[in-house]
Each structure stands twice: as C-alpha cells, then as structure tokens.
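hey so i finally got around to running the thing on that chain from the lab meeting. sorry it took forever, my laptop kept dying and i had to restart like 3 times. anyway pasting the input first so we r on the same page abt which one it is
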Amino acid sequence: MIAGNWKMNTTVSEAIDLVKAIRADLDKVRTVETVLCPPFVSLTAVRELLKSTSLKLGAQNVHFAEKGAYTGEISPLMLAGLCDYVIIGHSERRQYFAESGDLINKKVKAALKANLKPILCVGERLEENEAGQTEVVVSEQLTSVLEGIPSPDGLVLAYEPVWAIGTGKAATGEQANRTIAFIRHNLARLYGDKIAGETRILYGGSVSSANITEFVKFTDIDGGLVGGASLKAADFIGIVTQTAKTKA
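ok and heres what got predicted. didnt touch it at all, straight out
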C-alpha cells in the first residue's frame, strides 16, 4: 500500500487537477493499493474522480462520536460510504492538537464500527530516539491505542518517526525495518501470529521517489505513508510504480 496524505494542502480545484494528473498512471498499478487522503472539503470531488479506478479514498481524521455538539468535527457516519480509509493518530494530531492514546483509541473503535479502515500511526520523537527509547515508546503507543479492540480487522499501521516527518531526514531502510519488525512482534503478542503477519505496516517520514525502494525492499515494510511527495504528480507516480517493481 502507498497512501498519500495531502495534509492541509490543495483547494478543491487543485485537488481535482492533481487527481486527474495521476489517476490513469496509478490505475495501471494493480499490485499496490493506492490511497489518496485529501482534505475533507475535497473528499466528494475526489471520490467522483476515482470511480471506475482501483484507487481508494481516505480521510485525514475522524471524531469518535457519531453525532453531537462538536462544532467543526467530522463523524465516522459522515465518512462511511464516502471513504475507505481514515488516518488516525498522526503525529501532527498528537503534537498540535494534544491527541492522547485514549482519544486515538476511541477514534479507532469508532472507525472500525463504521466499517472504515484505520491507518493508525505510531512513532517516537527525536529526543526519544536519541535516548534509545524507540521500542518503549512505540510499544506503549500500540498498547494504549489498541486497548479493548478484540480484532483489528482491516487495520493498517504506519510507523512514522516524528523526527523524520517533513524534515527531509528519513530513517534508513534498516532502521525502519527493525522498528516495523518490532511493531509486528507486538501485534503478535496482542493478536497472534496470523493477524500480525497479515497486517500491513507502512513507513512514513520524508518518503520520496528517490528513497522508497530503500524501504520497501525489506519484507516487513509493506509500503509507505507519503506526505509532501504525494502532492507532486510525477513523484507520487514514481513512488507507487517503484514499490510495485520492488515488491514483484
């Protein structure tokens, strides 16, 4: 899987132009599931453009309540039937909006209940990485956000070291694979080897067409959660096509 997180970028018209520039090339790649995650305001327009293609649609966030007095929020019921996936627990949500493990856990449960597939993000900050705390932090994050979830059916995980997001400083493939293998080990502890082996785990953090092969050549890394490069048609097409070739 390659998922493009457009973050707070593109107007509706810009989103339409971007999809038109990439959909034909990406639709030819059937061995990689490609997910586009535009801003909320563009979901309907992008959904129309993706009809009759193999590309999937994802949202960037969701509230845990089905409805209520939560001004400005988007509920899972509003996304159900519109999106296939939803990004939950992105480090920017944790950092800028103080999202806790408990809140993220509620969002994951709400998404699964609405038959949305979460792309659940975990990852450590720079100071935690430098202190050798990566595994401790990631393990604690997984335990808290998956608490009370008996079966993570459809769940996708994304390891995104916070120090690599938007910095141009990606982890090495070996570093990412080591941590993702550890995440898979933790999934096995929580749900057994079968689910751990079937769950796709992506790498996110300054992924580009220049370095994607460095990650997906490792067997434990099942693709990428792509930020800035997903806004550039040629780069994103390159990321998806190179992933298909490497994983063939």
